Amino acid sequence: MSNSFDDIEQFDEDFKSKTQLKREMEALQKLGAKLLDQKPDFLAKLPLSDKLLAALEESKRIKQREAKRRHLQFIGKLMRDVDAEQIQQALDRQEAGTQAYIQHFHKLERWRDQLIDDEAQITPFMAEYPEADRQHLRQLIRNARREATQNKPPASSRKLFKYIRDLDENG
User: Fold this and answer.
1) Which of these, 40, 89, 121, 161, is most buried using a 10 Å CB contact count?
2) What value, to the nearest 5°, has the Cα angle with vertex 103 and ends 37 and 90?
3) Which residues have CB under 8 Å from 75's CB, separation 6+?
4) CATH superfamily of this structure's domain 4-89
5) Please, what CATH class does the domain formed by 102-170 belong to?
6) Rounded distance between C-alpha atoms, residue 67 and residue 88, angstroms
7) Contact 75, 132 (CB under 8 A)
């Protein structure tokens, strides 16, 4: 038989203040708000209830500010029944993937800019992308430089970037 002191300790561990409950609900609402911006194919991969998916879809139709706020509260309430941690991890992975993609894209842009600015950059570029056609690369660089000096639209610069991106994707 347990004494009343053990029951009090158990009660204290399970007890959450009204403020703590409110913070948890706000966190679920924020997580739900992040889901509003996601594409349907991404949402389909998440462990979401049909009711929550319907609420997320319905939120697109709501225009009034107060109605949106109430609907977001409703989404937060529905979020209580899902694995919020798993959803947060999936969102974090997607965001990290997006950041990684942006950083990689900037790396390719830097290669293009370096190649146009300095012909000596062809050697390190060829070391990283040995399957590149040196002659074709030089031609694209030459055309991009010519366009830059004549203040023409950067069509060749775009072609150079596309060539670099294709090498990167296929290499």
Assistant:
1) 161
2) 40
3) 29, 32, 33, 35, 36, 52, 55, 56, 59
4) PSPTO4464-like domains (1.10.60.30)
5) mainly alpha
6) 25
7) no
pLDDT tens digits in sequence order for the chain, 171 residues long: 555 555 555 555 667 788 988 898 898 889 989 998 888 888 888 889 999 999 999 998 999 999 999 999 999 999 988 888 888 888 888 887 778 888 888 999 999 999 999 989 999 999 999 999 999 999 999 999 999 899 888 899 999 999 999 998 876
Q: State the distance between the two ends of the chain, measured CA to CA, in whole angstroms.
A: 70
Q: What is the pTM of this model?
A: 0.52
Query: What CA–CA distance (Å, rounded) separates 132 from 141?
Result: 13
Contact 136, 161 (CB under 8 A): no
